[in-house]
Amino acid sequence: MVSGQNPINVPEIDLSNLKPMTPEWDSARSQIWKAVEEFGCFRVVFNKIPQNLPNSILNELKELFDLPLETKKLTNHITDLYGGYVGKSLFGPLYESIGFDDPFMLEKVEKLINAILPPGKPEFCKHVHDLAKLMSEMETMIVRMVMESLGVEKYLDEHCNSVFHALRVQKYEIPQKGEVEVALNIHKDQDVMTILYQSQIDALEVETRDGKWVDVKPSSDNFMVVIGETLHAWTNGRAHSPYHRVIMRGNRPRYSTGLFTAFKAGFVIKAPEELVDEQNPLLYKPFDHFEFLKLIKRDAEHYETNPNPSYIPLIAYYGIDV
Q1: Burial of 140 by CB count in 10 Å (0-12 exposed, 13-18 middle, 19+ buried)?
Q2: Record's Gene3D superfamilies (predicted)?
Q3: What pLDDT sits at residue 1?
Q4: How confident is the model over 129-138, as a mean pLDDT?
Q5: pLDDT value of residue 109
Q6: Whole-number Å distance between alpha carbons of 150 and 154
Q7: How far apart are CA 221 and CA 208, in angstroms?
Q8: Which of 45, 100, 195, 308 has the most CB atoms in a 10 Å sphere around its CB?
Q9: Which of these, 232, 236, 194, 234, lies nearest to 216 by C-alpha position?
Q10: Nearest-CA neighbor of 213 among 189, 180, 247, 240?
């Protein structure tokens, strides 16, 4: 059982209606960078995405996850590494999800849904497709602000050409007997960035730099952004990638949808030379994101049973002693 946590919340930043090279953009960029450094996560208001779009997806998820297990597993024959069905495990005892590995391709979204819910759900598929595209615009804006804050915005085009996006829909079950339970264990994301929209149920918690756990209060008008280890490595440690977990305390399941941004296989992730100097020596060897995931999968048992700061896969595999 996990006790209640600190009610302090992470920053909320409004990225609506912003144009580069304006005072409003500069103010938001300053807030973004402060949150990236201090928390590694923050909430975003982005009114380009109407609230009814992500909510319409969440409203369909009960039917999707109520399907038989073998039916949900059919998605694993249709998608790649970032797509398909993930079931309950030691690491996520109350967690399951279904991923769309190329949500920008409407026909691929439809192919997955048609396989498990014939004759399909065209409106749901269109909503997944539309939400992914709009969330990716938010991701690009945030990455641009991070790069501008570091003076390395010349790498933005390379970033946009080197990443892919996957969208996952997720369910967290109700704990038995109403007890407080860990639904998804302590972890860092290995991608560049995760953007979440969640149902109005408190469950997501993030560890601050000083070791305190804080609740991330969901709201219908904001998205949750979590910085991954890959962006932490690319910025040579300047962007913080936080530990987080999901703790279920209520009598209702929690549903969420998330856009995951990661570098394509074959792209070598390394800090720009502008971010490496005597005061900031190189922290990580260059690496391939998918090779990183293979190493984690190989050592999954150790990682899942030792989810503590003493074992950080990125440092274990690619860290440089300084």
Answers
A1: middle
A2: B-lactam Antibiotic, Isopenicillin N Synthase, Chain
A3: 42
A4: 97
A5: 95
A6: 11
A7: 24
A8: 100
A9: 194
A10: 247
Whole-angstrom CA distances from 297 to 81, 285, 300 are 12, 20, 5
* pLDDT score, position 21: 94
> Is 307 buried (19+), middle (13-18) or exposed (0-12) by CB count in 10 A?
middle
For the chain, what is the HEC assignment? CCCCCECCCCCEEECCCCCCCCHHHHHHHHHHHHHHHHCCEEEEECCCCCCHHHHHHHCCHHHHHCCCHHHHHHHHHCCCCCCEEECCCCCCCCEEEEEECCCCCHHHHHHHHHHHCCCCCHHHHHHHHHHHHHHHHHHHHHHHHHHHHHCCHHHHHHHHHHEEEEEEEEEECCCHHHCCEEEEEEECCCCCEEEEEECCCCCEEEECCCCCEEECCCCCCCEEEEECHHHHHHCCCCCCCCCEEEEECCCCCEEEEEEEEEECCCCEECCCHHHCCCCCCCCECCEEHHHHHHHHHHCHHHHHHCCCCCCCHHHHHHECCC
pTM of the model: 0.93
Q: What is the pLDDT of residues 17-45, one digit of tens each?
A: 999 999 999 999 999 999 999 999 999 99
Residue 4 is predicted with a pLDDT of 46
**In terms of DSSP bridges, do strands 193-198 and 181-187 run parallel, antiparallel, or are they unpaired?**
unpaired
pLDDT in tens, 150-180: 999 999 999 999 999 999 999 999 988 766 7
In sequence order, the β-bridge partners of residue 167 are: 100, 259
- With a CB cutoff of 8 Å and minimum separation 6, the contacts of 80 are 101
Q: Which domains does the chain have, with CATH numbers?
A: 12-266 (2.60.120.330)
Cα end-to-end distance, the chain, whole Å: 39
For helices 122-150 and 23-38, give the axis angle rounded to 10 degrees: 90
Per-residue tokens: 252: 């209702």
- Residue where the block lists tokens 């923050």: 42
C-alpha to C-alpha distances, 102 to 105, 168, 198, nearest whole angstrom:
6, 11, 21
